[in-house]
Design goal:
Distance between the termini: 22 Å
Number of strands: 8
CATH topology: TIM Barrel
Order of helices and strands: EHEHHEHEHEHHEHHHEHEHHH
Helix content: 40-55%
Number of domains: 1
Oligomer: single chain
Length: 264
């Protein structure tokens, strides 16, 4: 599973990539985000075009730039992201295939285009969206919960929603985010990782929880340890994998506490 770190710190980002992460995400999305996510405790970044250029200079890892949702500003944002070295643009809050088609035209093959499936409309149109020549498809659980007025962040991993989008997607597929295996709340990170692997997740993000949990730790120790834990979960036999799935659903639905013990 490829790991992409959200950061605009060149030294930190370069070390995490050198330690085994696949690349970096620079985040320009903020139009309407404060209003949409007010009171949700989500991460809203203030990354700049200059940050993108600095991260490009800092690492040879794959560099992704999340722009704002589609609008009159998209052409200029795409041009700027390409000019400053982005390997891919990520288009958030997709609702229609037309938005994706227009953005693909703006990209014009100069870089990859990935989309974030994080609206009810996008989930319903997943098969149609996945027919486009996209570099990756990511299910954004925070905004999907808000858009669908749901109460549980991880319910789409329990009720078949994520699996349905995954089944429709032939491109690299991502969902969720990870931190160190023994950390994470309300669901332990190792248990979420087991679920991501079960659903066939190809990549995921390392965001503020990972950065906070890494305080005082060496990325050249911890990133390989995280990748090794994913390898261990990947080779779990059917019985062990079923126990992980049951523990995940129980943690999400409240049948048992989120601090589930790790099945042997």
């Amino acid at each position: 599973m490829d790991l992409f770190l959200f950061t605009v710190d060149p030294g930190w980002g370069a070390d995490v990539v050198a330690a085994g992460a696949a690349g970096i995400v620079v985040d320009w999305e903020r139009r309407g985000k404060h209003r949409r996510q007010r009171g949700e405790g989500t991460q809203i970044n203030a990354d700049t075009p200059g940050d993108l250029a600095r991260m490009r200079a800092a690492t040879d890892g794959r560099l992704l730039c999340r722009v704002n949702g589609y609008g009159p500003w998209t052409a200029a944002e795409v041009d700027d992201a390409v000019a400053r070295g982005a390997d891919e643009v990520l288009l958030p809050m997709v609702r229609t295939a037309e938005e994706v088609d227009r953005t693909l035209e703006l990209v014009g093959g100069r870089c990859g285009l990935g989309i974030l499936v994080e609206t009810v409309d996008a989930v319903a149109a997943a098969a149609e969206l996945a027919r486009r020549p996209l570099s990756r498809v990511y299910v954004g659980l925070n905004d999907l919960r808000i858009d669908g007025r749901a109460t549980s962040l991880f319910l789409p991993l329990c009720d078949g929603t994520v699996e349905a989008v995954r089944a429709a997607t032939r491109q690299p597929f991502g969902v969720g985010g990870l931190t160190l295996p023994e950390r994470g709340a309300p669901v332990p990170a190792w248990l979420l990782a087991a679920e991501l692997l079960r659903t066939g997740t190809d990549f995921t993000f390392l965001r503020r929880s990972f950065t906070a949990d890494m305080a005082g730790r060496d990325p050249f120790v911890e990133v390989p340890r995280l990748l090794a834990s994913l390898d261990d979960l990947r080779v779990a036999g059917p019985g062990r994998a079923a126990a992980h799935r049951d523990a995940f659903v129980a943690a999400v639905t409240g049948v048992s506490g989120g601090g589930a013990a790790r099945p042997a």
